[in-house]
Design a protein that fits this description.
The chain has a five-stranded parallel β-sheet with strand order 2-1-3-4-5, with helices on both faces. Helix 2 packs parallel to helix 5. Helices cover 58% and strands 8% of the residues. It has 18 helices and five strands. The chain is elongated and about 85 Å long. By secondary structure, the protein is of the alpha/beta class.
Length: 394
């Protein structure tokens, strides 16, 4: 008789107890659980994983099979589930002790769980502050790509201005996927109470094709521009992220690492994420030659600018480039945006040149991400924005 069945016959309680202990350790070693019970404070990015959840389920089934069934089939199922539990736990431990960069620096912002009275992950607004600055934007301003709290460009600017002794309050009104229509809506909603003197628009170049007006004019890659396989991956990835699991990022890791081996062997020609990014670049280039989209952009910017000016404030547009633009020197989108802003007499701070110089020395974007700056990128954006604000606050 094989060793494990003999051990099961001789020491069933010990093996059952071991299985339950494995499940308990899987839960107890998970940083999400430890953070929830207050044993650790997550001040640095840590990989999360859903393997512990599967381990607990396996351990529970093992206990049911042990106490509820006495057949040889149940013994075989117990051994299979028990070994699966141990394997999943081992993978989980490896991901914690030696996490690959694709897991530790994934584009998931560590934004605060608490929200202010406006419903955004920021401090409570202070309308009584001597200087009030409102920052509106999309996922970049919201914090995607950063790895710690307080690393967003406007957080860094606020910290510096306060250290100078200024009574300043900076509020970020942003969310992933927003476009110009949502920026204007958010500005109009908070302005009567907050009355900002300065308004910073964190502009990503795909904002041209975001929002309801743009969707009515042109296809939107975020919804219809991807292949069927990628759409399935997106759905599965969203479910995995909601479970706080590493499985989706592990799949991406395997696609990248194993994909390299398969390409070297001539089995695989391209990587799906590289294909997606290449397709996105082509969409971006096409959008910025579409006169309907450019006309809509000019109208949206004009409305926001007029609202800010009529309320006694000043608008500035902070332009975030894509990573591929730094490497290729492609700036037609920035040129067209600059022409529109000049027509409207709206000042802009284009980060393309300074980002291009800095990218030669260090990485400014989250791993495998063409659009979201990392902590270094946000710090550089803050250094560009800060002098402009200081000049206006004299």
């Amino acid at each position: 008789m094989p060793l494990l069945p003999r051990l099961w016959q001789r020491h069933p309680r010990a093996l059952t107890a071991t299985t339950l202990v494995v499940g308990a350790l899987a839960v107890g070693s998970n940083p999400v659980f430890l953070h929830a019970v207050g044993l650790i404070l997550r001040t640095q990015p840590q990989p999360t994983s859903g393997f512990w959840l599967i381990s607990v389920i396996c351990a529970a089934f093992c206990a049911v099979l042990r106490w509820g069934c006495r057949s040889p089939r149940a013994d075989g199922a117990f051994l299979l589930l028990g070994s699966t539990t141990l394997v999943l736990l081992a993978i989980d431990v490896v991901l914690r002790l030696a996490p690959p960069v694709e897991l530790t620096e994934q584009s998931r912002p560590p934004v605060a769980k608490t929200r202010n009275a406006w419903g955004y992950p920021d401090t409570e607004p202070r309308p009584s502050a001597a200087t009030r600055i409102l920052v509106v934007g999309d996922s970049i301003t919201w914090g995607v790509g950063t790895t710690r709290e307080g690393a967003r460009y406007h957080d860094l600017v606020e910290k510096e201005l306060r250290e100078q002794g200024r009574d300043v309050d900076i509020q970020a009104v942003a969310a992933p996927g927003w476009g110009l229509d949502r920026y204007l809506e958010a500005y109009r909603r908070v302005t009567p109470e907050y009355r900002p003197q300065l308004v910073v628009l964190g502009f990503c170049l795909n904002d041209l094709n975001h929002g309801a007006p743009a969707r009515e004019l042109h296809d939107n890659i975020e919804q219809r521009g991807q292949g069927g396989v990628q759409q399935v991956r997106n759905v599965l990835g969203g479910a995995a992220r909601r479970l706080r699991a590493n499985e989706w990022m592990l799949a991406t890791l395997m696609q990248r690492r194993v994909g390299n081996l398969l390409r070297d062997a001539g089995v695989l020609e391209r990587d799906w994420l590289d294909d997606h990014q290449t397709a996105y670049r082509r969409y971006l280039e096409r959008w910025w030659t579409d006169e309907r989209l450019l006309s809509q952009l000019r109208a949206d910017l004009a409305r926001l600018h007029n609202d800010v000016r009529s309320a006694g404030g000043q608008l500035v547009v902070l332009v975030f480039p894509y990573r591929f633009q730094l490497l290729t020197g492609e700036q037609r989108a920035q040129d067209r945006l600059g022409f529109i802003l000049d027509e409207l007499h709206v000042p802009r701070l284009d980060l393309t040149e300074v980002f291009t110089r800095a990218q030669r020395e260090r990485e400014l974007y989250a791993p495998r991400d063409e659009g979201h700056p990392n902590d270094e990128g946000h710090a550089l954006a803050a250094r560009v924005l800060l002098p402009w604000l200081e000049e206006r606050l004299q």
